[in-house]
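---------- Forwarded message ----------

FYI, see the Amidohydrolase-related domain-containing protein record below. Original note from H. follows.
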Amino acid sequence: MVSIPTILLKGGNLLAHEGTKVQVLKGYDLLIEGKEIRKIAKGITAPAGARVVDCANKIVSPGFIDTHHHLWQSQLKGRHADHSFIDYMVHGNLHSYNYKPDDIYWGQLAGSLESLDGGVTTVVDHAHMIYSADHATAAINASASSGLRTFFCYNAIPRVKEWSSSKLEYEEELFPEWWHTQLDSLARSQPFGDGRVYLGLAFDSWTLPKKEIVDLWTKCRKSGIKLFTTHYVGNATGGKFLFVQVPIDVKWMSESELLKSDVLLSHVTRAPDEVYEIIRENGAFVSSTPDTELQMGLGYPVAFRDDIKSNASLGIDCHSNNSADILTQIRLGMQNARAVENEKRVRSGGYPAVDIKVEEAFNLGTIQGAKAVGLENQIGSLSEGKLADIVIFETRSPAMVCAAEENPLAALVLHASVRDIDMVIVDGKIRKENKNLNPLEVQGAPKFGSGKQIRWEDVVQEVLTSREAIKKRSESQSADVAKEALYRRFSGM
Protein backbone atom coordinates (compact mmCIF):
# COMPACT_ATOMS: atom_id res chain seq x y z
CA MET A 1 0.00 0.00 0.00
CA VAL A 2 1.43 3.38 -1.04
CA SER A 3 1.47 5.91 1.77
CA ILE A 4 -0.27 9.24 1.17
CA PRO A 5 2.16 12.19 1.44
CA THR A 6 1.12 14.41 4.34
CA ILE A 7 2.16 17.99 5.07
CA LEU A 8 1.16 20.06 8.10
CA LEU A 9 1.48 23.83 7.74
CA LYS A 10 1.79 24.93 11.35
CA GLY A 11 0.74 28.23 12.93
CA GLY A 12 0.39 30.45 9.86
CA ASN A 13 -1.81 33.43 9.10
CA LEU A 14 -4.26 31.95 6.60
CA LEU A 15 -6.14 34.06 4.06
CA ALA A 16 -9.46 32.22 4.03
CA HIS A 17 -12.55 33.01 1.97
CA GLU A 18 -16.15 33.14 3.05
CA GLY A 19 -17.75 33.77 -0.29
CA THR A 20 -15.92 36.85 -1.60
CA LYS A 21 -14.92 38.03 1.87
CA VAL A 22 -11.38 37.30 3.02
CA GLN A 23 -10.69 36.75 6.69
CA VAL A 24 -7.30 36.27 8.33
CA LEU A 25 -7.10 33.13 10.47
CA LYS A 26 -4.17 33.92 12.76
CA GLY A 27 -2.06 31.09 14.09
CA TYR A 28 -3.99 28.35 12.27
CA ASP A 29 -2.76 24.99 11.00
CA LEU A 30 -3.54 23.46 7.62
CA LEU A 31 -3.24 19.72 7.02
CA ILE A 32 -2.59 18.39 3.50
CA GLU A 33 -3.13 14.72 2.72
CA GLY A 34 -2.34 13.64 -0.81
CA LYS A 35 -3.63 16.31 -3.17
CA GLU A 36 -6.22 17.81 -0.81
CA ILE A 37 -6.56 20.17 2.10
CA ARG A 38 -7.85 17.79 4.75
CA LYS A 39 -8.27 20.07 7.78
CA ILE A 40 -7.95 23.70 8.85
CA ALA A 41 -7.92 24.39 12.58
CA LYS A 42 -5.77 25.41 15.51
CA GLY A 43 -3.64 22.83 17.26
CA ILE A 44 -3.74 20.01 14.69
CA THR A 45 -1.59 17.08 15.78
CA ALA A 46 0.81 16.02 13.06
CA PRO A 47 0.02 12.52 11.74
CA ALA A 48 2.83 9.96 11.86
CA GLY A 49 5.33 10.58 9.10
CA ALA A 50 3.96 14.00 8.20
CA ARG A 51 6.27 16.79 7.16
CA VAL A 52 5.73 19.77 9.45
CA VAL A 53 6.34 23.24 7.99
CA ASP A 54 6.69 26.05 10.51
CA CYS A 55 4.49 28.88 9.20
CA ALA A 56 4.81 31.22 12.20
CA ASN A 57 5.36 34.75 10.90
CA LYS A 58 4.20 33.68 7.45
CA ILE A 59 1.10 34.31 5.35
CA VAL A 60 -0.59 31.29 3.80
CA SER A 61 -2.52 32.16 0.64
CA PRO A 62 -4.47 30.22 -1.96
CA GLY A 63 -2.45 29.70 -5.13
CA PHE A 64 -2.92 32.40 -7.74
CA ILE A 65 -4.72 31.74 -11.02
CA ASP A 66 -3.56 33.26 -14.31
CA THR A 67 -6.37 33.08 -16.86
CA HIS A 68 -4.49 34.19 -19.99
CA HIS A 69 -0.89 33.38 -20.88
CA HIS A 70 1.32 32.26 -23.78
CA LEU A 71 3.75 30.00 -21.95
CA TRP A 72 5.97 29.13 -24.91
CA GLN A 73 7.52 32.60 -25.31
CA SER A 74 10.42 32.41 -22.81
CA GLN A 75 13.17 32.75 -25.42
CA LEU A 76 11.65 36.08 -26.55
CA LYS A 77 11.97 37.80 -23.17
CA GLY A 78 13.52 41.26 -23.22
CA ARG A 79 12.50 42.11 -26.78
CA HIS A 80 9.37 44.10 -26.11
CA ALA A 81 10.40 46.83 -23.68
CA ASP A 82 9.27 49.60 -26.03
CA HIS A 83 6.90 47.67 -28.31
CA SER A 84 3.28 48.37 -29.08
CA PHE A 85 0.99 45.61 -30.32
CA ILE A 86 2.10 45.43 -33.95
CA ASP A 87 5.79 45.47 -32.95
CA TYR A 88 5.15 42.66 -30.48
CA MET A 89 3.48 40.65 -33.25
CA VAL A 90 6.48 41.09 -35.56
CA HIS A 91 9.27 40.56 -33.05
CA GLY A 92 7.44 38.11 -30.80
CA ASN A 93 4.33 36.22 -31.86
CA LEU A 94 5.42 35.58 -35.44
CA HIS A 95 8.62 33.94 -34.24
CA SER A 96 6.73 30.79 -33.37
CA TYR A 97 7.66 30.07 -37.02
CA ASN A 98 11.29 29.81 -35.86
CA TYR A 99 10.58 27.39 -33.02
CA LYS A 100 11.25 23.70 -33.47
CA PRO A 101 9.45 21.29 -31.10
CA ASP A 102 12.52 21.17 -28.83
CA ASP A 103 12.45 24.97 -28.57
CA ILE A 104 8.78 24.80 -27.63
CA TYR A 105 9.58 22.32 -24.87
CA TRP A 106 12.19 24.52 -23.19
CA GLY A 107 10.25 27.74 -23.71
CA GLN A 108 7.11 26.15 -22.26
CA LEU A 109 8.95 24.60 -19.31
CA ALA A 110 10.79 27.83 -18.45
CA GLY A 111 7.53 29.80 -18.68
CA SER A 112 5.72 27.31 -16.46
CA LEU A 113 8.48 27.41 -13.85
CA GLU A 114 8.53 31.21 -13.86
CA SER A 115 4.82 31.12 -13.10
CA LEU A 116 5.34 28.72 -10.20
CA ASP A 117 8.22 30.81 -8.88
CA GLY A 118 5.82 33.78 -8.76
CA GLY A 119 3.12 31.95 -6.81
CA VAL A 120 0.89 31.12 -9.78
CA THR A 121 -0.42 27.58 -9.43
CA THR A 122 -2.90 27.47 -12.36
CA VAL A 123 -2.49 28.92 -15.87
CA VAL A 124 -4.79 29.11 -18.88
CA ASP A 125 -2.30 28.66 -21.70
CA HIS A 126 -3.50 30.06 -25.04
CA ALA A 127 -1.17 27.90 -27.13
CA HIS A 128 -0.80 29.87 -30.35
CA MET A 129 2.37 28.15 -31.59
CA ILE A 130 1.12 24.79 -32.91
CA TYR A 131 2.93 24.36 -36.23
CA SER A 132 2.78 20.58 -36.00
CA ALA A 133 1.53 17.79 -33.78
CA ASP A 134 5.06 17.53 -32.38
CA HIS A 135 4.94 21.17 -31.26
CA ALA A 136 1.78 20.50 -29.24
CA THR A 137 3.17 17.27 -27.78
CA ALA A 138 6.34 19.04 -26.66
CA ALA A 139 4.34 21.77 -24.96
CA ILE A 140 2.07 19.32 -23.13
CA ASN A 141 5.06 17.26 -21.98
CA ALA A 142 6.71 20.40 -20.63
CA SER A 143 3.54 21.52 -18.85
CA ALA A 144 3.14 18.09 -17.30
CA SER A 145 6.79 18.06 -16.21
CA SER A 146 6.67 21.48 -14.56
CA GLY A 147 4.18 20.70 -11.79
CA LEU A 148 1.96 23.61 -12.79
CA ARG A 149 -1.82 23.16 -13.10
CA THR A 150 -2.57 24.10 -16.70
CA PHE A 151 -5.35 24.41 -19.22
CA PHE A 152 -3.53 23.69 -22.47
CA CYS A 153 -5.79 25.45 -24.96
CA TYR A 154 -5.14 23.84 -28.34
CA ASN A 155 -5.14 26.42 -31.12
CA ALA A 156 -5.29 26.57 -34.91
CA ILE A 157 -3.03 29.43 -35.97
CA PRO A 158 -2.29 31.06 -39.32
CA ARG A 159 1.02 29.27 -39.97
CA VAL A 160 3.78 31.08 -41.82
CA LYS A 161 4.89 29.14 -44.89
CA GLU A 162 7.86 31.34 -45.78
CA TRP A 163 9.44 34.41 -44.19
CA SER A 164 12.42 35.92 -45.93
CA SER A 165 13.97 39.31 -46.65
CA SER A 166 11.37 39.93 -49.34
CA LYS A 167 8.10 38.22 -48.37
CA LEU A 168 5.91 36.73 -45.67
CA GLU A 169 3.60 34.00 -46.93
CA TYR A 170 1.06 31.94 -44.98
CA GLU A 171 -0.07 28.36 -45.41
CA GLU A 172 -3.44 28.19 -47.13
CA GLU A 173 -4.95 25.53 -44.86
CA LEU A 174 -5.91 26.67 -41.34
CA PHE A 175 -7.11 23.26 -40.10
CA PRO A 176 -4.88 20.53 -41.59
CA GLU A 177 -5.95 16.92 -41.08
CA TRP A 178 -3.29 16.29 -38.42
CA TRP A 179 -4.76 19.16 -36.35
CA HIS A 180 -8.17 17.49 -36.10
CA THR A 181 -6.64 14.06 -35.52
CA GLN A 182 -4.48 15.30 -32.65
CA LEU A 183 -7.27 17.35 -31.10
CA ASP A 184 -9.51 14.26 -31.01
CA SER A 185 -6.71 12.14 -29.55
CA LEU A 186 -5.83 14.66 -26.85
CA ALA A 187 -9.47 15.09 -25.89
CA ARG A 188 -9.74 11.33 -25.33
CA SER A 189 -6.45 11.11 -23.40
CA GLN A 190 -6.70 14.11 -21.07
CA PRO A 191 -5.96 15.06 -18.35
CA PHE A 192 -2.19 14.78 -18.37
CA GLY A 193 0.49 15.25 -15.72
CA ASP A 194 -1.19 13.30 -12.89
CA GLY A 195 -4.46 15.06 -13.64
CA ARG A 196 -3.09 18.63 -13.59
CA VAL A 197 -3.05 19.40 -17.32
CA TYR A 198 -6.47 19.74 -18.93
CA LEU A 199 -7.27 20.29 -22.59
CA GLY A 200 -9.00 23.47 -23.73
CA LEU A 201 -9.67 25.10 -27.11
CA ALA A 202 -8.17 28.45 -28.05
CA PHE A 203 -10.03 29.97 -30.97
CA ASP A 204 -9.53 33.24 -32.88
CA SER A 205 -10.82 32.33 -36.34
CA TRP A 206 -14.07 34.32 -36.28
CA THR A 207 -14.05 35.05 -40.02
CA LEU A 208 -14.85 31.40 -40.78
CA PRO A 209 -18.39 30.45 -41.83
CA LYS A 210 -20.60 30.42 -38.75
CA LYS A 211 -21.72 26.83 -39.27
CA GLU A 212 -18.10 25.68 -39.32
CA ILE A 213 -17.46 27.46 -36.01
CA VAL A 214 -20.57 25.99 -34.38
CA ASP A 215 -19.72 22.49 -35.59
CA LEU A 216 -16.17 22.68 -34.20
CA TRP A 217 -17.26 24.01 -30.80
CA THR A 218 -20.07 21.47 -30.55
CA LYS A 219 -17.69 18.63 -31.35
CA CYS A 220 -15.20 19.88 -28.76
CA ARG A 221 -17.82 20.14 -26.04
CA LYS A 222 -19.04 16.62 -26.77
CA SER A 223 -15.44 15.37 -26.59
CA GLY A 224 -15.04 16.62 -23.02
CA ILE A 225 -13.25 19.92 -23.54
CA LYS A 226 -14.39 22.18 -20.71
CA LEU A 227 -12.75 25.54 -21.45
CA PHE A 228 -12.86 27.73 -24.58
CA THR A 229 -10.82 30.91 -24.83
CA THR A 230 -10.49 33.69 -27.40
CA HIS A 231 -8.92 37.12 -27.85
CA TYR A 232 -11.27 40.09 -28.06
CA VAL A 233 -9.63 43.50 -28.49
CA GLY A 234 -11.14 46.58 -30.10
CA ASN A 235 -9.08 49.11 -32.00
CA ALA A 236 -9.80 52.76 -31.24
CA THR A 237 -10.18 53.75 -34.87
CA GLY A 238 -12.65 52.81 -37.54
CA GLY A 239 -14.26 50.01 -35.57
CA LYS A 240 -11.47 47.65 -36.64
CA PHE A 241 -10.42 44.86 -34.31
CA LEU A 242 -6.81 43.91 -33.76
CA PHE A 243 -7.04 40.13 -33.52
CA VAL A 244 -9.75 39.52 -36.08
CA GLN A 245 -10.94 41.28 -39.20
CA VAL A 246 -14.49 41.62 -37.86
CA PRO A 247 -15.68 42.07 -34.27
CA ILE A 248 -16.53 38.93 -32.33
CA ASP A 249 -20.32 38.90 -32.34
CA VAL A 250 -21.10 37.92 -28.75
CA LYS A 251 -24.82 38.33 -29.43
CA TRP A 252 -24.59 35.71 -32.16
CA MET A 253 -22.46 33.53 -29.87
CA SER A 254 -25.21 33.74 -27.26
CA GLU A 255 -27.99 32.98 -29.74
CA SER A 256 -25.98 30.05 -31.14
CA GLU A 257 -25.39 28.69 -27.64
CA LEU A 258 -21.63 29.08 -27.98
CA LEU A 259 -21.33 31.67 -25.21
CA LYS A 260 -21.59 29.72 -21.96
CA SER A 261 -19.90 29.53 -18.58
CA ASP A 262 -17.05 27.53 -20.14
CA VAL A 263 -15.99 30.52 -22.29
CA LEU A 264 -13.18 32.87 -21.29
CA LEU A 265 -12.63 36.02 -23.38
CA SER A 266 -9.23 37.67 -23.05
CA HIS A 267 -8.96 41.47 -22.77
CA VAL A 268 -12.43 42.57 -24.01
CA THR A 269 -11.21 46.16 -24.11
CA ARG A 270 -13.01 48.97 -25.97
CA ALA A 271 -16.13 46.85 -26.39
CA PRO A 272 -19.64 48.34 -26.52
CA ASP A 273 -21.39 48.30 -23.12
CA GLU A 274 -23.88 45.68 -24.28
CA VAL A 275 -21.03 43.22 -24.81
CA TYR A 276 -20.26 43.12 -21.08
CA GLU A 277 -23.94 42.61 -20.31
CA ILE A 278 -24.19 39.69 -22.73
CA ILE A 279 -21.03 38.08 -21.35
CA ARG A 280 -22.27 38.42 -17.79
CA GLU A 281 -25.77 37.13 -18.55
CA ASN A 282 -24.33 34.02 -20.18
CA GLY A 283 -22.03 33.28 -17.26
CA ALA A 284 -18.85 33.67 -19.33
CA PHE A 285 -15.73 35.38 -17.96
CA VAL A 286 -13.13 37.90 -19.12
CA SER A 287 -9.41 37.93 -18.42
CA SER A 288 -7.71 41.31 -18.04
CA THR A 289 -3.93 41.53 -18.56
CA PRO A 290 -3.01 45.04 -17.34
CA ASP A 291 0.68 45.07 -18.31
CA THR A 292 0.24 44.27 -21.99
CA GLU A 293 -3.06 46.10 -22.39
CA LEU A 294 -1.65 49.37 -21.04
CA GLN A 295 1.64 49.11 -22.93
CA MET A 296 0.51 47.82 -26.30
CA GLY A 297 -2.41 50.18 -26.88
CA LEU A 298 -5.09 47.56 -26.32
CA GLY A 299 -7.18 49.82 -24.08
CA TYR A 300 -7.81 50.14 -20.36
CA PRO A 301 -8.17 46.91 -18.32
CA VAL A 302 -11.84 46.18 -17.68
CA ALA A 303 -11.63 43.84 -14.66
CA PHE A 304 -12.78 46.53 -12.22
CA ARG A 305 -15.70 47.81 -14.30
CA ASP A 306 -18.96 47.60 -12.36
CA ASP A 307 -20.73 45.88 -15.26
CA ILE A 308 -18.23 43.00 -15.61
CA LYS A 309 -16.16 42.69 -12.42
CA SER A 310 -18.39 39.88 -11.14
CA ASN A 311 -17.23 37.88 -14.18
CA ALA A 312 -13.62 39.06 -14.38
CA SER A 313 -10.21 37.55 -13.69
CA LEU A 314 -6.56 38.41 -14.36
CA GLY A 315 -3.85 37.06 -16.63
CA ILE A 316 -0.20 37.63 -17.53
CA ASP A 317 -0.49 37.43 -21.34
CA CYS A 318 3.18 37.57 -22.39
CA HIS A 319 5.96 36.83 -19.92
CA SER A 320 8.20 37.81 -22.83
CA ASN A 321 6.97 41.36 -22.16
CA ASN A 322 6.51 41.47 -18.37
CA SER A 323 6.82 39.40 -15.20
CA ALA A 324 4.76 36.24 -14.78
CA ASP A 325 3.69 36.83 -11.18
CA ILE A 326 0.03 37.70 -10.78
CA LEU A 327 0.79 40.10 -7.92
CA THR A 328 2.12 42.56 -10.48
CA GLN A 329 -1.10 42.39 -12.50
CA ILE A 330 -3.27 42.67 -9.38
CA ARG A 331 -1.43 45.79 -8.25
CA LEU A 332 -1.16 47.44 -11.65
CA GLY A 333 -4.78 46.75 -12.56
CA MET A 334 -6.11 47.99 -9.23
CA GLN A 335 -4.11 51.21 -9.19
CA ASN A 336 -4.99 51.96 -12.81
CA ALA A 337 -8.69 51.50 -12.02
CA ARG A 338 -8.39 53.70 -8.95
CA ALA A 339 -6.73 56.39 -11.05
CA VAL A 340 -9.47 56.24 -13.71
CA GLU A 341 -12.18 56.61 -11.04
CA ASN A 342 -10.44 59.52 -9.35
CA GLU A 343 -9.85 61.30 -12.64
CA LYS A 344 -13.60 61.25 -13.22
CA ARG A 345 -14.24 62.62 -9.72
CA VAL A 346 -11.73 65.44 -10.03
CA ARG A 347 -12.96 66.46 -13.48
CA SER A 348 -16.51 66.70 -12.13
CA GLY A 349 -15.41 68.87 -9.19
CA GLY A 350 -15.21 66.13 -6.56
CA TYR A 351 -12.44 64.87 -4.30
CA PRO A 352 -10.33 61.72 -4.71
CA ALA A 353 -11.49 58.62 -2.86
CA VAL A 354 -10.67 54.91 -2.86
CA ASP A 355 -13.68 52.72 -3.57
CA ILE A 356 -11.79 49.75 -5.02
CA LYS A 357 -10.44 47.74 -2.10
CA VAL A 358 -7.47 45.37 -1.94
CA GLU A 359 -9.81 42.47 -1.14
CA GLU A 360 -11.52 42.87 -4.51
CA ALA A 361 -8.16 42.92 -6.27
CA PHE A 362 -6.92 39.84 -4.39
CA ASN A 363 -10.07 37.95 -5.33
CA LEU A 364 -9.48 38.60 -9.04
CA GLY A 365 -6.26 36.59 -8.79
CA THR A 366 -7.71 33.78 -6.68
CA ILE A 367 -11.38 32.80 -6.34
CA GLN A 368 -12.47 34.78 -9.41
CA GLY A 369 -9.85 32.99 -11.49
CA ALA A 370 -11.14 29.67 -10.19
CA LYS A 371 -14.67 30.60 -11.26
CA ALA A 372 -13.38 31.66 -14.68
CA VAL A 373 -11.98 28.18 -15.35
CA GLY A 374 -14.89 26.32 -13.78
CA LEU A 375 -12.88 24.97 -10.85
CA GLU A 376 -14.21 27.10 -7.99
CA ASN A 377 -15.12 23.94 -6.10
CA GLN A 378 -11.53 22.69 -6.30
CA ILE A 379 -9.13 25.67 -6.24
CA GLY A 380 -9.02 29.42 -5.60
CA SER A 381 -9.45 29.42 -1.82
CA LEU A 382 -8.19 27.65 1.27
CA SER A 383 -10.97 25.26 2.20
CA GLU A 384 -11.23 21.71 3.49
CA GLY A 385 -11.72 19.30 0.61
CA LYS A 386 -10.20 21.57 -2.02
CA LEU A 387 -6.98 20.79 -3.87
CA ALA A 388 -3.83 21.88 -2.05
CA ASP A 389 -2.68 24.74 -4.29
CA ILE A 390 -1.02 27.04 -1.78
CA VAL A 391 1.52 29.89 -1.61
CA ILE A 392 3.41 30.78 1.59
CA PHE A 393 4.86 34.26 2.03
CA GLU A 394 7.71 35.28 4.31
CA THR A 395 6.80 38.37 6.37
CA ARG A 396 10.18 39.41 7.76
CA SER A 397 11.64 40.80 4.54
CA PRO A 398 12.29 44.55 4.16
CA ALA A 399 9.16 44.79 1.98
CA MET A 400 6.79 42.85 4.22
CA VAL A 401 7.79 43.71 7.78
CA CYS A 402 5.15 45.82 9.56
CA ALA A 403 2.79 45.58 6.57
CA ALA A 404 2.06 41.93 7.38
CA GLU A 405 1.40 42.75 11.04
CA GLU A 406 -0.95 45.59 10.14
CA ASN A 407 -2.90 44.00 7.28
CA PRO A 408 -1.79 40.67 5.74
CA LEU A 409 -4.03 41.13 2.72
CA ALA A 410 -2.63 44.58 1.99
CA ALA A 411 0.87 43.21 2.52
CA LEU A 412 0.38 40.79 -0.37
CA VAL A 413 -1.44 43.11 -2.75
CA LEU A 414 0.69 46.23 -2.22
CA HIS A 415 4.07 45.13 -0.85
CA ALA A 416 4.94 41.53 -1.71
CA SER A 417 7.06 40.36 -4.62
CA VAL A 418 8.49 37.07 -5.86
CA ARG A 419 11.37 37.36 -3.38
CA ASP A 420 8.88 37.03 -0.50
CA ILE A 421 7.42 33.73 -1.74
CA ASP A 422 8.95 31.06 0.48
CA MET A 423 6.99 28.00 -0.66
CA VAL A 424 4.62 26.98 -3.47
CA ILE A 425 2.51 23.82 -3.28
CA VAL A 426 0.49 22.41 -6.19
CA ASP A 427 -1.67 19.30 -5.85
CA GLY A 428 -0.10 18.70 -2.45
CA LYS A 429 3.46 18.64 -3.85
CA ILE A 430 6.04 21.24 -2.85
CA ARG A 431 7.36 22.84 -6.02
CA LYS A 432 9.26 25.73 -4.45
CA GLU A 433 10.75 25.95 -0.96
CA ASN A 434 13.22 28.18 0.83
CA LYS A 435 12.58 30.59 -2.08
CA ASN A 436 14.06 28.19 -4.66
CA LEU A 437 12.42 25.95 -7.24
CA ASN A 438 12.73 22.26 -6.46
CA PRO A 439 14.16 19.78 -8.98
CA LEU A 440 11.54 18.27 -11.26
CA GLU A 441 11.05 14.95 -12.99
CA VAL A 442 10.79 15.54 -16.72
CA GLN A 443 8.58 13.83 -19.26
CA GLY A 444 9.64 13.70 -22.91
CA ALA A 445 12.42 16.25 -22.43
CA PRO A 446 14.88 16.80 -25.30
CA LYS A 447 18.26 15.33 -24.31
CA PHE A 448 16.99 14.12 -20.90
CA GLY A 449 14.12 11.83 -21.93
CA SER A 450 11.57 10.84 -19.28
CA GLY A 451 11.93 10.01 -15.60
CA LYS A 452 15.10 12.01 -15.00
CA GLN A 453 15.28 14.76 -12.38
CA ILE A 454 16.65 18.07 -13.57
CA ARG A 455 17.27 21.39 -11.81
CA TRP A 456 16.44 24.95 -12.76
CA GLU A 457 20.09 25.39 -13.75
CA ASP A 458 19.64 22.68 -16.39
CA VAL A 459 16.60 24.50 -17.79
CA VAL A 460 18.58 27.74 -17.94
CA GLN A 461 21.29 26.16 -20.04
CA GLU A 462 18.83 24.59 -22.48
CA VAL A 463 16.61 27.64 -22.90
CA LEU A 464 19.61 29.92 -23.55
CA THR A 465 20.93 27.53 -26.18
CA SER A 466 17.48 27.43 -27.75
CA ARG A 467 17.29 31.24 -27.75
CA GLU A 468 20.47 31.48 -29.80
CA ALA A 469 19.20 28.95 -32.33
CA ILE A 470 15.92 30.86 -32.75
CA LYS A 471 17.77 34.13 -33.27
CA LYS A 472 20.02 32.54 -35.89
CA ARG A 473 17.02 31.22 -37.84
CA SER A 474 15.56 34.72 -37.95
CA GLU A 475 18.63 36.53 -39.28
CA SER A 476 17.44 36.66 -42.90
CA GLN A 477 13.83 37.58 -42.07
CA SER A 478 12.67 41.14 -42.65
CA ALA A 479 10.71 42.78 -39.83
CA ASP A 480 9.48 45.49 -42.21
CA VAL A 481 8.06 42.91 -44.63
CA ALA A 482 6.32 41.16 -41.75
CA LYS A 483 4.87 44.40 -40.39
CA GLU A 484 3.42 45.32 -43.75
CA ALA A 485 1.88 41.86 -44.11
CA LEU A 486 0.32 42.12 -40.67
CA TYR A 487 -1.14 45.55 -41.35
CA ARG A 488 -2.81 44.14 -44.44
CA ARG A 489 -4.06 41.12 -42.52
CA PHE A 490 -5.54 43.04 -39.59
CA SER A 491 -7.08 45.75 -41.74
CA GLY A 492 -8.73 43.17 -43.97
CA MET A 493 -7.05 44.60 -47.07
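H. also flagged this: The two ends are 65 Å apart (CA to CA).
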